[in-house]
Each structure stands twice: as structure tokens, then as C-alpha cells.
Amino acid sequence: MSVFDWPEDDHCDWVPIAFLYIRPDEGRSVQFVRADEADPPVIPVSGYFDAGATLPVEAEDTGYSMNGVRLFATEELENACLVFDHHVERWPRQDLRLSCA
Q1: Neighbours of 23 (CB within 10 A)
Q2: Distance between CA atoms of 91 and 94, rounded to whole angstroms?
Q3: How remote is the C-alpha of 17 from its chain's centroid?
Q4: DSSP letter at 67?
Q5: How far apart are CA 82 and CA 60, in angstroms?
């Protein structure tokens, strides 16, 4: 498994929006999006971004962490969850790839 991200930036005037990618050991990477419903036409397959989520019981620790933030994902990669000291963010999977031209 590999993990990479695009930080929030002025890309395409979509502020704030961030992308997280998880690539399973085999296959294409899966895109997750951190964006409010009011942001660009995000059509997530597993709900919307939630900054005050509860960690799903089926979420598994991926082993990745940075600056004390741990990354969990559900088995079918429907959601990625970032676990901070005092809150959990749930990032939904995005099947229709978003990117800037």
C-alpha cells in the first residue's frame, strides 16, 4: 500500500479542497476528497466529508502516520479516516477523478 496527497492550495480556485490517494498493493490508486458540500462538483460514493466523524468500527489502521495524525481506512476503501488527538475526519472515496487542467 502507498499513500500520497495534494495539499490544500489555490488549484482551480477550489479552496479549500484536498485529495488523498491510497494505492492498494495491487491496482489503481483510490482518490479521497476533503471538501465541503459547497465546494466543486464532488460526487463522493460514500457520503460527504465529515470533520467530526466517529471512527467506523470496521476501519483498520493502515500503519501510516504523520505529525501524530494516523490514517485508517475501511476494508473496501469506501472511506479514509484521519485520526487526530481530539477528532476524526472522514474523507469519502471519489470514483470520478477530480483534477485541475
Answers
A1: 13
A2: 9
A3: 10
A4: T
A5: 11
CB 31 within 8 A of CB 22: no
Q: Evaluate whether 34 touches 49 at the Cβ level (below 8 Å).
A: yes
C-alpha cell at position 26: 495491487
Which of 48-52, 66-70, 81-85, 96-100 is predicted least confidently?
96-100
Calpha distance 43→37 (Å, rounded): 9
- What DSSP state is assigned to residue 11? G
- Nearest to residue 91, comparing CAs of 11, 40, 36? 36
pTM of this prediction exceeds 0.70: yes
- Note the helical H segments in 6-93: none
8 Å CB contact between 81 and 20? no
